[in-house]
C-alpha cells in the first residue's frame, strides 16, 4: 500500500475528528486505516460476482467492515453509523485518488 494514501487517510480522519466525528479518534486512527484500506482493496475477492460495483456499494461494504472490526456489538451501533459512513467515504476517496500506486 502506498504511504501517500495512508497519509491522506490519516489527515482526513484528523479533520473528521476536529469536526466532531467520534469514530475518528486518535486512539483508533491507525486501526481504522489498516482495516479500511484492507477491506477496500479486498472487495472484489469477497464479492467476485459483482463485476461493476457502484461506489455506494463499496462504501456500504466498507462501513460494515469497519463496524465489525471496531464495535463489540455491531448490531447496536445506531446513530454512529453516520459517523462510520464519513470515515468510510474518507478512506474510499483516498483509495481511488490518482496518487494511488497500482
Notes on the structure:
The protein has 102 residues and is an all-alpha fold. It has a domain at 26-44 and 53-97. It has five helices and no strands. The chain is globular. 25% of the residues are buried.
In short:
The protein is built from 5 helices and no strands. The protein is mostly helical and 102 residues long.
What key attributes describe this structure?
single chain; mainly alpha; 63% helix
- Order of SSEs: HHHHH
Number of strands: 0
Terminal CA distance: 9 Å
β-sheet strand percentage? under 5%
Seen as an oligomer or otherwise, the chain set is: single chain
Low-confidence stretches: none
- In percent, how helical is the residue content? 55-70%
Mean pLDDT: 90
Tell me about the biggest sheet? none
From the alpha carbons, calculate the radius of gyration and give it in angstroms: 13 Å
Structural class: mainly alpha
Choose one word for the global shape.
globular
Number of separate helices = 5
